[in-house]
Amino acid sequence: MPRSAPLTPLGISALSLLVEEPMHPYEMYQLLMARHEDRLVKVRPGTLYHAVGRLEERGLVETAGTDREGNRPERTTYRITPAGREALTERLQDMLAEPVNEYPSFPLAVAEAYNLPAAVVLDLLDRRLLLLQEQLEFLTKR
Does residue 79 sit in the same domain as residue 119? Predict the structure, then answer.
């Protein structure tokens, strides 16, 4: 039997949240945003709903229930299945163990920086350093 496609980054994030507790996709979205995980994975409410739907089609999540508050639309809550836990574990292990050439842009920019005047390169790298320091301060304030 052929192995199914690997989990997408958004699929991994959704399964990871469902390990914590059952929830509906918009709740997942809010939690990802509150945790600033949008810095790690591209996430929008619509794409998250589709990702959860694909996980359900693969048997990695299942409906835990539906509820409705007031005039709001009905919300479906999902939980991870044993197959989902296994898929998550396998994918994380693969990602941690196997190096992948991801073609990041910064090493390419450094390799080609000789095409710019040295003073410009130094100024740009100083600006990059300041932005990275701001990001680090933001992340360590929590």
Answer: no
